[in-house]
Amino acid sequence: MKFFIDTANLAEIQEAQDFGILDGVTTNPSLMAKEGISGKNNVLRHYKAICNIVDGDVSAEVIATDFEGMIREGEELADLDEKIVVKIPMIKDGIKAIRYFSEKGIKTNCTLIFSAGQALLAAKAGATYVSPFIGRLDDIGFDGIDLIEQIRTIFDNYGFETEILAASVRNPMHIIKCAEVGSDVMTGPLSAILALLKHPLTDNGLKQFLADHAKVNG
Ligand code: E4P
């Protein structure tokens, strides 16, 4: 399973890249706003800076919600760097835009997926990735992992090449469950990825090994 990080923070992206397990980055307008990035030129510069750090796909979201606007913004984003994946919302014009980009060989990530039907439509339009938001489903009492499993079955039934990008991942159990049900990618905060490192028996075991070594080696 590929590990993407869901942030627009350059220091966090650099830390994840240096950790050696990073396959890509996802961003959204809220994450860009959190970093205080505003104005078209600054936004484009920031996406380029992310591409310069990461060795993998970088999702950059369009703001327009009409077909022509999404095409205009998406082409500008795609021109920035070959790592750019144009992130497009799950709306009717978004599906048309995904089809357009897919025919031009431009990678897309269909975002704000909350049902299997939405994922199926995006895959039929030729999306490179679909992003089901599992944490936000859990927040309202639905099981986000069930949705990943359902989409996996549908994509496998028909041989869709669209990758399932489990988004809105919030904790290490989400990551493990996504891997169990065959998600292609997960995206979440670096803290959720680093939490996979932790086990008290590892900490205790290492402490004991070092103590035993010190007993005879000083
Ligand atoms: C995915 O592409 C989104 O940027 C993101 O995962 C949303 O996560 P959140 O629900 O934690 O905001």
Q: H/E element string?
A: EHEHHEHEHEHEHHEHEHH
CATH architecture classification? Alpha-Beta Barrel
Average pLDDT, all residues: 98
Q: Runs with pLDDT <50, length 5+?
A: none
State the end-to-end CA separation.
Answer: 43 Å
**What oligomerization state is this entry in?**
single chain
Small molecules bound: erythose-4-phosphate
Question: Can you tell me the overall shape?
Answer: globular
Query: Main β-sheet: number of strands, strand sense, barrel status?
Result: 8 strands, parallel, barrel
Helix content: 40-55%
Structural class call reads alpha/beta
What is the CATH H-level superfamily?
Answer: Aldolase class I
Number of domains: 1
Q: CATH class, anyone?
A: Alpha Beta
Q: How large, in whole angstroms, is the Cα Rg?
A: 19 Å
Give a count of the beta strands, DSSP E runs of length 2 or more: 8
How many helices does DSSP assign? Answer: 11
Side by side, the strands of the main sheet go 1-2-3-4-5-6-7-8
CATH fold field value: TIM Barrel
Query: Could you tell me the strand content as a percent range?
Result: 15-25%
